[in-house]
Design a protein that fits this description.
5-stranded antiparallel sheet; alpha+beta
Length: about 725
């Protein structure tokens, strides 16, 4: 008789505990998960094969959006009409002809290989072909571009299917999208249950790394095996991440062991104060204590250590801590984690690729380190978290071309001899891509200086971007018409290249964009274009609380606070079909919540706030409300919803943007109960809430205070008498 795996012991204990409760539905779910009532036993005891996304069957006559058509005994591939809604993710290639006399190189990969923010005007495939033609001759080689934006494990299937194109060599540029699967496999849930009580979130992180590394090994093995059997050389490009500039949003630590959360918060506040005061040694000491407490599952401590190392000129320490920060979020299925190649992914890829004699590696982390003379890669190489600038594309394409020449011609040409700065987009395309990088970075909560950098560079390259920026200011600020029906949207489409339609119009969210529009205005005025007065006038006319009452929880306003966890309930972000936040109201995941409204100096404002405290915060704990850094009210919080009207004097209100801060008391933490709730969510196939909630807001509005002004005391007394009578 086969014994059940050790991981089911914790699950069996959970079932026994649940049997003593009255929740029969939960008992049924747990029994199904254990296999005793069918449905899960097969993959709990048989190698986890049933729901692995790498096990699905693919049509052998398809390569991505193209399907096989036999013509005179030769196979061509044409785009499928039923996949028209996906065409924009791929190269604008309607037909792939049968192979001719030219050398055929295929490029497969994700959005980095697609040339995100440059595509379709300039792509890595174009750069690779240009480098190869500079050595082999014009017309001697063709690069078939099979890269796709937003492709995940399916990149394996595209690469294997591409053998039908009879390539002489294939370049595989992928690894950024090989993330943790959600919902997790039932056997992974059982394993989490077995270690959560002992290891906490650090155990979930370890399991996530194992899963990601295992998927990476399988993808590399499947593709490399197929190419080795076909006798076709394969070049793997291992991606790098923007370690120098990209910063994931700072969040509170998830539920830690007893007493650690409160101390972690204190350490973070002390470390940030030390950084502001220039006390980097003290800040580094505090940050190391934070990492010790959270066991490497938070970015905050690592970012402080990386910044301290950067200020000290220690590139190796900066790189090491930035890499640890990049990897710290691998476990967190409750929020959006931007694409990246984790260290466990890279290690698995290097190890697995080394087993195949037909494979070569372009190790982008090592390549870019050499190119930059040891410096940490940042905005010079990356447009955002992982997508390459023109310089980054030039370097990686040169390295891929060096491997291609070695495999197909037996010649050794070092990569740096193949870097050609002339292989680049037009100045107009470059400028538009840089402005798109500014928008993209701002919309993913990046630092103001990064956004301003891209705006400045865009204007320096091509003044035509100024008109696009001015229209973008109007597009974001005007709410008189839906975004795509706005006259400014039409102007942007007319003024710009296809990049504007592909990226700005397709993916843009209309929002207050406090930092982005300010950076745009600063860059425009430095370049001699007047913009600030226009922005301030538009905001006053469209958004001033003197014109209408404003809902501060509206995503348009709330999004400017750069607190993505708090706005998830508004954006309705999903993982597969699962909502990332099930609440229908605002939850504060940090000690302070930030909001914005547009006001006019001297005009009083009434803030109306409905809130409650979580159960673990004592009744009567003080919630403070500030405007532009000045205290306005102290509220005694309660566990039931209560509404507070706060009158703000006109002397505290500024022209334009005003910042409201709600400061919450620190709650008592119950980590054991919180970890139990997390596991319960996993068992019920829900996105778990890994973080403590400091407070909740049901509604929050700002209105012209003059409409609510109190009458003189005598008039109030007369009114009271009249009401009584």
């Amino acid at each position: 008789m086969q014994r059940p795996p050790e991981t089911l012991k914790a699950l069996a204990n959970r079932i026994a505990r649940q049997a003593l409760s009255e929740d029969s539905a939960q008992i049924v779910r747990l029994l199904r998960l254990s296999g005793y009532m069918g449905g899960a036993a097969d993959f709990l005891f048989a190698g986890d094969a049933a729901s692995n996304p790498l096990d699905h069957k693919v049509n052998p006559d398809h390569i991505g959006i193209w399907e096989r058509k036999e013509e005179n005994g030769r196979a061509a591939f044409v785009r499928r009409m039923e996949k028209m809604d996906e065409w924009h993710f791929w190269a604008p290639l309607g037909r792939i002809e049968p192979k001719g006399e030219r050398l055929r190189v295929v490029l497969c990969g994700e959005s980095v290989a697609r040339g995100y923010l440059y595509d379709p005007e300039f792509t890595p495939a174009m750069a690779l072909q240009a480098v190869l033609e500079s050595r082999l001759g014009v017309g001697a080689v063709e690069v078939i571009d099979l890269a796709r934006t937003s492709i995940y494990f399916e990149v394996r299937d595209v690469a294997v299917a591409a053998l039908q194109l009879e390539p002489d060599l294939t370049v595989m540029f992928a690894g950024n999208n090989w993330c943790v699967s959600f919902p997790p496999h039932p056997s992974d849930v059982a394993r989490m249950d077995a270690i959560m009580a002992d290891e906490g979130i650090a155990g979930v992180k370890r399991l996530s790394e194992e899963q990601v590394a295992g998927n990476a090994r399988r993808i590399v093995n499947d593709v490399s095996t197929a190419y080795q059997a076909a006798g076709v050389p394969l070049v793997w490009i291992i991606p790098e991440f923007n370690l120098g500039d990209w910063r994931d949003p700072i969040t509170n630590a998830p539920h830690l062991a007893e007493g650690r959360n409160r101390r972690w918060i204190e350490l973070l506040e002390e470390a940030e104060a030390a950084m502001r005061d220039g006390e980097t040694e003290r800040a580094a000491t505090l940050a190391r204590q934070m990492v010790e407490l959270d066991e490497g599952v938070c970015v905050a401590g690592f970012y402080i250590l990386a910044e301290c190392a950067r200020l000290a000129g220690d590139h190796d320490a900066e790189r090491r801590n930035a890499e640890l920060a990049r990897d710290a979020v691998i476990w967190d299925s409750s929020r959006m984690v931007m694409p990246r190649t984790f260290e466990c992914t890279k290690a698995a890829m290097r190890d697995e690729i080394g087993k195949f004699s037909n494979c070569q590696i372009v190790d982008a982390p090592a390549l870019l380190k050499e190119h930059l003379g040891g410096a940490v890669p940042g905005r010079r190489i990356f447009l955002d978290y992982c997508h390459l600038t023109t310089e980054g594309i030039q370097v990686v394409a040169a390295a891929a071309a060096s491997c291609t020449l070695r495999a197909l011609r037996g010649v050794e040409v070092p990569w740096y001899a193949l870097v050609d700065e002339r292989i680049a987009p037009t100045r107009e395309t470059e400028a538009e891509a840089l402005f798109l990088a500014a928008v993209h970075s701002a919309h993913w909560w990046q630092p103001y200086d990064v956004v301003l950098h891209f705006c400045r560079r865009a204007l320096k390259l091509s003044p035509h971007v100024a008109d696009i920026m001015l229209n973008y200011i109007y597009l974001q600020t005007s709410r008189s018409a839906p975004m795509l029906m706005n006259e400014s949207a039409e102007q942007i489409s007319r003024l710009g290249s296809p990049l504007m339609l592909r990226y700005l119009m397709r993916y843009n969210d209309q929002k207050l964009d406090a930092e982005l529009l300010d950076a745009t205005v600063v860059a425009l005025e430095e370049a001699g274009f007047s913009a600030r007065e226009r922005l301030e006038r538009l905001r006053r006319e469209e958004h001033s609380v003197s014109v209408r009452e404003v809902n501060l929880l509206d995503y348009y306003y709330c999004s400017s606070a750069n607190q993505p966890q708090e706005t998830a309930w508004q954006t309705r972000l999903k993982i597969n079909q699962y909502r990332m936040n099930e609440a229908e109201y605002y939850k504060a995941y940090w000690r302070e919540s930030r909001f914005f409204f547009v006001g006019e100096a001297g005009v009083p404002v009434r803030l109306s706030l409905t809130l409650r405290l979580p159960r673990l915060t004592p009744e009567g704990a003080q919630v403070s409300v500030e405007l532009n850094g000045r205290p306005q009210a102290e509220i005694e919080g309660a566990h039931e919803w209560a509404t507070w009207d706060i009158m703000v004097e006109g002397s505290a209100v500024r022209d334009g943007l005003n910042g409201v801060t709600v400061r919450w008391p620190i709650q008592d933490f119950e980590p054991a109960a919180a970890l139990e709730r997390i596991m319960q969510d996993f068992f019920e196939r829900k996105v778990p809430d890994f973080y403590a909630v400091f407070g909740e807001i049901y509604s929050f509005t700002a209105a012209d205070g003059r409409r609510f002004a109190q009458p003189p005391e005598e008039a109030r007394e007369e009114l009271a008498v009249a009401q009584l009578s």
